[in-house]
Amino acid sequence: MKIFVAGAAGVIGRLLLPKLIEAGHQVVGMTHREEHVDIIRKSGARAFLADAFDREAIMSAIAAERPEAVIHQLTSLRDWNLEENARIRIEGTRNLVDAAKAANVSRIVAQSISWAYEPGESPAAEDVPLDIAAPMPRKRTIEGITALERAAAELPNHVILRYGMLYGPGTWYDRQGMMADKVRRKEVPATNGVTSFVHVEDAAHAALLALDWPSGPVNIVDDEPAPGTEWLPVYASAAGAPEPGFQAGSNRGERGASNFKARNEYGWEPSYPTWRTGFGKTMA
């Protein structure tokens, strides 16, 4: 299969490309950073340099390449710029979907998130509504996710990967990442809010498998949603940080997500089934 990967040099994209090549696919990887072109080429894929907001460039590229599938891994999270990330989910996705439709591409796999569900007391399954009533600033994130998922669903075959909080190499939770620095400075308290994590390798593997999954959203999270009072001390220890302080309460939507569909219906098995051992293995 010929596949166009947008966000090909991101933390998931750079792990995904070799998996796609090894599976026998022909891959074109898009990046907006010239210094990332070599990363794409070294994986065995062809590189395409363009900005996701450059509509004409995206339209021209997909028209010329005529891929059979588009994998959307676009984000803008390097500098914790949530406003820019919402914009790329809205405008970048619109450009990709319109280009795919114009080129008669019928399949898309798109990156979403698993912490966009409306509030609740238990981990959310995929049939739980998104939190469209959220107040600002969370509302902006939900708007971005809603726009992304609705646009992707315009293609006949559309798999929406609702990833948990990513950890592992190159992520915020990497040993040299932003969260590790914050935890070492004791800026992150342990709360009652529940988080679902997923290792970045498992996230990339899910994107490969999703090329053969039926349309719709699917949570890609590990087996153990947990409150900050449980996971943060384990993460702090793995990061060489002091014991975190405690702060009662949680933020809206911190309920975690269930991976029942991915595991039991689609056969996805995470290599890192829980953050409890995954943090230590990836930060040693």
Keywords:
seven-stranded parallel sheet, alpha/beta, Rossmann fold, two-stranded parallel sheet, 10 helices, globular, 37% helix
Describe this structure in words.
The chain has one domain: 3-Layer(aba) Sandwich (Rossmann fold), CATH 3.40.50. By secondary structure, the chain is of the alpha/beta class. Helices cover 37% and strands 17% of the residues. It starts with a strand and ends with a helix. The chain has helices spanning 13-22, 37-42, 55-65, 82-102, 138-152, 178-184, 200-209, 228-238, 260-265, 275-283, and strands at 2-6, 26-31, 46-49, 69-72, 107-113, 157-163, 165-167, 194-195, 197-199, 216-220, 226-227. Helix 5 (138-152) links the parallel strand 5 and strand 6 (157-163). Strands 3-2-1-4-5-6-10 form a seven-stranded parallel β-sheet, sandwiched between helices. Strands 7-9 form a two-stranded parallel ribbon. Helix 3 (55-65) crosses helix 4 and helix 8 (228-238) runs parallel beside helix 10. It is globular, with a radius of gyration of 18 Å. The longest helix has 21 residues, at 82-102. The model has no long low-confidence stretch (mean pLDDT 96).
